[in-house]
Amino acid sequence: MVIKRRDLLKFLGVTTGTALLSQATKGLSSPLVMANQGKDKINKIIQGSESLTFTPVKIPIPLASDYLSDEQQKAVYKTYEVIDDVVLPEGFTYDVIAQWGDKVGNSRFGYNNDYLSLIETKSNEGFLTINFEYISGKTWRETSEKVIGKTLPFQDVKEVADKNDGKINAFKLANDDPLKAKIEAIASEALIDQGIGVISLRKNAQGEWQRTYSEADRRITGISGLEDGHYLKATGPGVKIFEKTNKLGYEDSLGSKIIGTFQNCAGGTTPWGTVLSAEENIQDQVPEPVMADGSSLDPSETPFLMTEEYLDGRGNAFGLAGNKYGWMVEIDPSDKNDYGTKHTWLGRYRHEAVAFRAETGKKLAVYSGCDRRGGHLYKFVSDGNISEPQDKKNSKLMNSGMLYGAVFNDDGTGKWVALTPETPINPVLPSTVQGGLVTLPNSDRTFGGMMKVTDDQDIIPFKNQFKTLGDLYVGTSEEKQGAILIDAHFAASAVGITCTARPEDTEIDTNGVLYVTFTSGTPGSDGGPDKAVFQGPNGEMNYEYGWIMKIIEDKNNPAAMSFRWDILATGGEPAQGGMGFANPDNLMFDNQGDLWMVTDMSTSSHNQEIKDRVKDGEPVSTKSLVGIFGNNTLWYLPLQGENKGTAFPFAIGPMEVEMTGPWLTQDQQTLFLAVQHPGEAYGTRQNKASEVREFSLLTTSGETFTQTRTVPLGSNWPSKQANDPPRPAVIAIRTSNKI
Question: Could you give the dihedral angle defined by the CA atoms of residues 682, 685, 688 and 693, in that order, rounded to the nearest 10 degrees?
Fold first, then answer.
């Protein structure tokens, strides 16, 4: 779809014909005003595609687009105040659409809203699908009674948990044990706050989107099916594993029925109007590794966990089978009876976003990444062809096909390797990845699970023992395929799929080019990225700030087995070759083909003081410097025109949040955003408390100076009233001018 110029101008607060000259002093401008200013770029008014104009918000560090001298930068950025609110350019405002605890169907709006998708059923009306990723244990416990109106037995359970490093194996407790009932009460409420939600919306005459509370409004929670009968279903070879008898591992006695969905992070929307939701960090709630036949480890492997910071292992309380989580879940928002289908051909791993190439007469291609350090990038290719991209029957194409993993070469080429029983074993070598760690299927297949390998020599006996993926798994050919898909991450490492830098979002432009955000190049306990591919702008290893990559399939064919890749944008400080942001995450294209991006800096790093860039005579790591970037942000990255290659900050989030799921309406007049985990570190902001911290910053040419920054402690967003509990919420950003 090509947006009309006047619609884009409306979204940006500019009318056609006569520009809103009165807005120039408020941060918005028109092409006419910009022309009158000539080369005076101190005002920072930028022009993107088709006269997209706004004044970027001021983030805590200098940007090249400020057009300031070093001395001016030092003066302008000497002090900075962080705001506990969504900060937008002048001329824009936002409305809170729904927040944690609001009524949705017979349940409530969940916690830590993430991916958003608005399926517009008619002009200015539609269904908004929302993911609810996880709960922030500490803040959720502190605020849940006030928000959801229930008193839960936190103290009783924590007293027991404290005696065993926070862990309780609730699965093994007797059904009549009072402690088990208390744990189930806590776990069920927390799982209700995860999953998927659908709410109906309509835009009023003032340009505000409001809820309409239709019959299709519903919640699909972490315990759907447990008591209400709304089980989720599955397709593909994984079903054979769910339904097989005499499993090597745990049996939940449900066959292919699945209780709920949780850890729902990013997602994707199909051209035919369904939404896919990504189950990401399922290892926090259920066991992730599996047995050699693809069956689950015992729920006891991931016990219930309650500490000061965490409240996890919630699947343990209900005996959930771990192999039924970590999938892509498809729903039709408009079908009130649809509670989700998990497509096992898309693979089981820590899914993030998903992107679709659905072109008439060609195979369906579905791309997704595994968001862990050392995670892989995957592509599913259907057996059948697309006949009509808008036909809902296309969902059935995900029932049959093949899953491939991406192998990146350092010369900008790459290939796709099928994850089949016949694929030769060729493990990733620890020496080729940053951090020197690779995770593989456990070589002792009797016990199943996974193992960590840190020495290349340990790969030799593994290759001698197993020749193909089929040697690692047991069962019929179809059962082996199902087990491989269930164990996708570890199987992919075993056949040499490239370890990457936390692939989070996958988006495809109108030309079929795939864009992937790699959020962080720092290695960790799960592994690390390939040394030859994921380097900083100056060849740095362990580069924290991340990248945006472009991938073009050979002959632009969705089913191609080879591709070319290139880095589009690199995070980091401008003085060091970065574009001014850190940890890119969700992407979104506007209808002019320009890119919007939100960042995903971990909460623990937000505004963390850094007085000195040198420690023990050595520069501190990029990971230690993330605090200089302040709060998470939303950026505009024009891919054409005079501003191509520059990143401009459009919005800043409240305290300790991640802003996720950006979604533009078809007329480009409203931008939906999910604001998750406000107050995750400090909880409720008490009496508007703040703290002054010092930061060692660089000008854009590399001169060092000190900034004094005022940082709120905790959050009261979205009410912004003193001592109110922070609540995750979805907002709609629009121009404050009359549309």
Answer: 10
